[in-house]
Amino acid sequence: MTAMTTTTATADTGGAAFLRLLIAATAILVGLALLPAVVDPYQTVLLTYGLVMAIAALGFNLLLGYTGLLSFGHSAYFGTGAYTVAFIVRDLGAHSMELCILGGLAGTVLVSALFGFVCVRHTRIFFGILTLALSQVLWSLAFKFFWVTGGTDGIRVAYAKLTLLGGLVDFAGPGSFQRFVFAYYYYVLALFTLATVVMWVIVHSPFGKALQAIRDNETRASFVGISVRRHRWIAFVISGAFTGLAGILWVPLNGLTTPDVLYWPFSGEIVFMSVLGGFRTFAGPIVGAVTFNYLKTAAVASTEYWQLLLGVVLVTLVLLLPSGIVGTAMRLVSRWTR
Fold it and tell me: In terms of DSSP H, where are the helices of 35-160?
């Protein structure tokens, strides 16, 4: 009887916590939906960039935060998605964003499955070095085969030629940029919401719990029957697909795909987004990505030595908030509640 009472109380507590989380998420989503009405188009574009990078950080954190694998090569999957969109628009003459997403995801899953098969055989620093090396191989190919990739000039992808929702929304005619900014913001917001829900389901599923078991104790996880290498490979592919989706959505905003998105510093930015927000929390990478995007924009606008300024600010934040922005906030709220 006591055990049943305890179980019921635990279920009630879990249900109440989930309800509070759902209410908070709904309020944030409504706020994001209303934001373009009260801010200028430039701020809307910045927030769109932040949401795109939040999708990439969510994917990356499936490896770092939930599987315990630190990848220094996630720019490879971001760049694969970006270049696939550029090739589809330039070489196939397609203009549907949905077709670009399908093609980009297919290309990204193929590359991440191949790279993951090689990388998950190793852990710790060996895993990180392998991911970095493989991403640099893609960067070298994009840089050297300039007759295919455009080299440092990149491949131009004009937003005016793209359509959304199967051609229902286009950007031809006067005022196209203004219409693109607002329409694409809501398009990215919808995909960000979908990606967040899917990732939430993944990390709270038995598969996600198995990943956390592998992260905490690989030997014990293998003893209870978890296929460690297979779970890591699947997590690697899912992580790459999310990051590739971010690269796909990034292209129309940037308008140009260059080898820079395949270079190792871009992978470092993705890592730092997760660490800044708090990679031990689900919402941490989202907050970290949006915050990093605004900090980088402000630093670039402030001084020509923006790399130095941004580095100092980020190092200071990491030292002051060792568990990240969200992790620190949760700890303070918990202390205040007690």
Answer: 41-67, 75-91, 97-119, 124-144, 146-149
In the chain, the number of structural domains is 1
Q: Which of 104, 62, 115, 72 is nearest to 239 (CA)?
A: 62
**Is 227 inside any structural domain?**
yes
Per the structure, the complete domain to which residue 108 belongs is given by: 34-263
pLDDT (0 to 100) of residue 242: 94
Q: Is 103 part of a structural domain of the chain? A: yes
196 three-class SS: helix
Instruction: Over range 283-294, report the average pLDDT.
Output: 89
Phi, psi for residue 89 in degrees, rounded to 5 = -70, -45
Cβ(285)–Cβ(279) below 8 Å: yes
Largest separation between any pair of C-alpha atoms in the chain: 74
Computed from CA positions of residues 191, 196, 197, 202, in that sequence, does the dihedral angle turn out positive or negative?
Answer: positive
Tokens representing residue 95 in the block? 């203009």
Please provide residue 150's backbone torsions phi and psi, each rounded to the nearest 5 degrees.
85, 0
**How high is the pLDDT of residue 126?**
85
| pTM given for the model | 0.90
19, pLDDT greater than 60: yes
DSSP 152: G
Which residues, listed in sequence order, are joined to residue 169 by a DSSP beta bridge? 164
Q: Over the stretch 161-172, which tens digit does the pLDDT of each residue have?
A: 888 887 787 877
pLDDT digits (tens, 9 = 90+) for 217-251: 888 888 888 888 899 999 999 999 999 999 999 99
Spell out the residues 6+ positions from residue 21 whose beta carbon is closer than 8 angstroms to its own: none
Domain membership of residue 287 (yes or no) is no
